[in-house]
Design brief:
The protein is of the alpha+beta class. Helix content is about 20%, strand content about 20%. A hairpin with a 6-residue loop joins β25 and β26.
């Protein structure tokens, strides 16, 4: 094993400069995609949220390229999000809605950006975590995998790494305060106090508080320092694979497309020394929402939080944060190694680097771990696009999704990749257009409408809702401008929920627009969704000039009255489901319709030259 890539010191800081890069091979732009797993948007030094955090190589990429401050995962879990990156499709449209569906080759009937680039003459390699249907890998060189009897694949690089550990590091009996990791590394680690089995023994298992059943040990249960040399860390190994790929690409006459997909900072959060102790426990700030009572939240039982009080423990959570940020800094050091290899091979100036993550990590926020929810820590991710010959330093504050990467890649690499759901980010990067970037949508459809299915964010406001027909506690509205840690749900059981109907209606309109654009089967479900019980919200589509059209419907108590505002002096009519005209009026300003004696059902409101809208009489 080549161990020259990482030093044993606390941080490998690579001094590199665009001005010293060689011209690069060929005229076509090369592509290096660097993806981490479970890195939240603020786990970046440049983001400024954690003063102690050192990520100098990523910070420099962000300073010299396009840094997106409002990038979101298409879905806050691995396989759905990663498949959206590869295909440029929404989760609903590519069909990989859950992690298990990553092993279903009947999903995804379009080509990935890797496959399209290979067809257009690119040399392609992929190293690290894949977690999408395996038939999408046929364009990669140096790529192998095996499939077991259950149809689940294992990548050869993972098999090789585990064999390396087995052959190079003898198995020994765990020492004091040490445990064996049965979930991934199959090696010993020194457990930290937040570890589920800390000072309880190898055989301890968690008991569910709701039904008394035993919970199996999983990757997120393991916390501490992995007892192997840092030169054998998984991040170091994956970097070594990527460096070899860059060297192979440099010998080709073709342009290249290489992805290195790091496993970390995903659980088990087991950094090696010295990364495990790079940051002091006392530096770790407590999450402001850590003790959120969650009394008006759709996520009060999410991620098993009721069974895991350690993630609300002020002393224990610091150990998790210490490991997490150590893993992030190790990855940053390896990013520096990759950039240095590009430079040494004369490829840096003509290579686009995309850095991002598939989703975030709660890290004790709202007293929970992992992802799977629409909170910022889970769904908001870092995104940097660096290409010195094509992109000037810029900070992009518009709202974007990783679905947009496919068309962005095709745009900058001048390849026709066909139409996909995402949109190229070039106009936002170059400041030539702001139409895209007004809002972003994230999906979740693991278990149907019993939990939130959609999140839409715009102008610092976030709406969380489901496509179910019955009122439930699956809705939330947050003003991130004044409540950045999402502790004050303005709807749900809030008695003043109707004070925020205007903001809710705007966000719902954006969500319906997005669903319509992507041909979703859930469009009408959301359009007709009653989010505030007893009140009607209406999604209007007024074309380009939104919120300034003739007709506006204000949510009201549907059993008593509905407010309709004519912004211009035009005739407005209300029809029942059978087409009978119930009322017609011409006036400016607000009109209150008394509908006490109307039958229950759907009514159509129409005005000339405007889209018809509906309200529901309960």
């Amino acid at each position: 094993m080549n161990t020259r890539f990482l030093t044993v010191g606390l941080l490998f800081i690579l001094h590199w400069s665009v001005n010293t890069f060689a011209k690069g091979n060929g005229e076509k732009l090369n592509l290096l995609v660097i993806m981490t797993d479970q890195q939240r948007f603020d786990a970046l030094g440049k983001a400024g949220h954690f003063a102690f955090l050192k990520t100098p190589n990523l910070d420099r990429l962000a300073s010299e390229g396009a840094w997106f401050t409002n990038a979101y995962a298409p879905c806050a879990v691995c396989a759905p999000s990663r498949t959206s990156v590869l295909t440029g499709l929404t989760v609903e449209n590519h069909g990989v809605k859950t992690n298990d569906l990553a092993y279903d080759n009947t999903k995804v009937n379009v080509k990935t950006f890797d496959q399209v680039l290979a067809e257009n003459g690119y040399y392609s390699e992929y190293w690290g975590k894949f977690h999408s249907p395996i038939h999408l890998t046929d364009s990669y060189q140096e790529f192998e995998y095996t499939v077991n009897n259950q149809g689940r694949y294992t990548l050869q690089d993972q098999t090789d790494y585990k064999k390396l550990l087995k052959d190079s590091i003898p198995d020994v009996t765990p020492g004091p305060d040490q445990l064996f990791d049965p979930t991934f590394f199959k090696k010993n680690y020194t457990a930290s106090p937040i570890d589920m089995r800390y000072q309880k023994g190898e055989d301890y298992r968690r008991i569910r508080v709701d039904n008394g059943s035993t919970m199996e040990i999983t990757q997120p249960d393991c916390h501490g320092q992995l007892e192997i040399p840092s030169t054998y860390s998984l991040t170091n190994y994956q970097t070594e694979c990527a460096v070899k790929a860059i060297k192979r690409a440099a010998s080709q006459e073709k342009p290249f497309n290489i992805t290195v997909s790091y496993f970390f900072p995903h659980a088990p959060m087991l950094p090696t020394y010295p990364w495990s102790s790079m940051y002091r426990l006392e530096e770790m700030p407590l999450p402001p929402s850590m003790h959120d009572p969650m009394t008006n939240s759709p996520y009060d039982k999410a991620n098993g939080r009721i069974n895991m009080p350690e993630y609300r423990d002020e002393n224990k959570i610091r150990y998790m944060m210490q490991s997490y940020f150590g893993l992030v800094s190790e990855i940053d050091s390896c990013v520096g190694v990759l950039i240095n290899q590009l430079k040494e091979n004369g490829l840096a100036e003509n290579t686009m680097i995309i850095f991002t993550s598939d989703h975030g990590e709660m890290l004790g926020s709202h007293g929970m771990r992992e992802k799977n929810v629409f909170y910022e820590e889970s769904s908001h991710i870092p995104l940097i696009i660096w290409a010195p010959k094509h992109i000037r330093p810029t900070k992009v504050d518009g709202y974007v999704s990783l679905v947009d990467l496919y068309p962005t890649i095709m745009d900058y690499l001048s390849v026709n990749g066909g139409n996909r759901d995402g949109e190229s980010l070039r106009s936002l990067i170059e400041g030539t257009g702001q139409a895209h970037g007004k809002y972003v949508v994230t999906e979740w459809d693991y278990r149907g409408p019993s939990e939130p299915n959609y999140m839409v964010v715009s102008n610092g406001w976030k709406l969380i809702t489901s496509y179910g027909s019955e009122p439930s506690n699956t809705h939330a509205l947050f003003d991130l401008n004044t409540d950045p840690y999402e502790m004050n749900n303005l709807i749900g059981n809030n008695t003043a929920a109707t004070d925020y109907t205007e903001e809710l209606e705007i966000l719902k309109e954006y969500l319906v627009e997005w669903l319509e654009k992507n041909n979703s089967t859930r469009t009408d479900d959301i359009r007709n969704r009653e989010i505030i019980p007893g009140y009607t919200t209406t999604s209007l589509n007024f074309g380009e000039n939104k919120h300034s059209a003739c007709l506006k419907v204000t949510p009201s108590i549907a059993t008593t009255y509905v407010n309709i505002e004519n912004i211009a002096n035009r005739a407005t009519s209300v029809f029942n489901a059978e087409g009978r005209k119930m009322i017609e009026f011409i006036s400016d300003g607000e009109n209150t319709l008394n509908i006490t004696n109307w039958r229950s059902g759907t009514y159509i409101i129409s005005s000339p030259n405007q889209s018809s809208v509906k309200f529901l009489k309960k």
